[in-house]
Sequence to fold (191 residues):
Amino acid sequence: MTVSLNKGQTVSLTKAGGGTLSKVRMGLGWDAMKKKGMFGTRSQSIDLDASALLFDATGKLVDQVWFSQLASKDGSVHHTGDNRSGAGEGDDESIKVDLSQVPSNVTTLVFTVNSFTGQNFSQIENAFCRLIDESNESEIARYELTGSGTHTAQIMAKVTRDGSGWSMTAIGTPTSGRTFHDLLPAITGIL
Fold:
């Protein structure tokens, strides 16, 4: 059963029958709006990039997974590859996380999306992030990246250790930047 999240809402990653999820995938999907011109509409490519940032309890960035580093140093987080256009159906980029293997010093994973090519979100439609249970491919939570605007990035969601389990919070904070490095000042405010 999918939970549709609003900005600020949190969902526990505890399985319905008990226990916690161990392998999850954060999917990002989007479409580029058609450009209107003198001779009708035409397609454009927009290169959105998903990133996962791993933080410890003090808010220190421990590791990152993005198009330039497709796996965390410990191997618990993997990016499936860079989609530079938004073309295709479903998830355009995915980041897989083995929560049972995330190092114990990591308390929070933050997922971001940014426009590497600099187009803003007013040129993007049907954008979403979703969390999938990798064991059965069921969608656990979905967050629509609503609100077009002049921002070029968004802090999508965070997954936080919650006792012996994990929970996901929809963030949806608009910001600007070409890579996650530009977003770090905004991220410290949501940790």
Summary: Residues 180-188 form the longest helix (9 residues).
